[in-house]
């Protein structure tokens, strides 16, 4: 089963995906700017990108392991 990221790599618009992903990560970090003091190192740039959809799908499929994580 392909997840969203793997599916992106199989379609004709893949060439646009890296730039779109980078823009999404940059927006994620910009949205955190007001919380910079709470971020590791005081900067949203240090916050790892987490895909909420992937996390949700993984939680649904691996509920027991998710609780450990």
UniProtKB/TrEMBL annotation:
What is the protein name for this chain? Phage protein
Q: What is the lineage of its organism?
A: Bacteria, Pseudomonadati, Pseudomonadota, Gammaproteobacteria, Enterobacterales
């Amino acid at each position: 089963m392909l997840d969203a990221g793997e599916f992106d790599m199989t379609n004709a618009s893949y060439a646009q995906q890296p730039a779109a992903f980078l823009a999404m990560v940059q927006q994620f970090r910009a949205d955190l700017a007001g919380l910079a003091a709470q971020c590791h190192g005081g900067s949203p740039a240090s916050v790892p990108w987490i895909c909420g959809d992937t996390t949700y799908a993984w939680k649904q499929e691996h509920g027991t392991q998710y609780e450990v994580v």
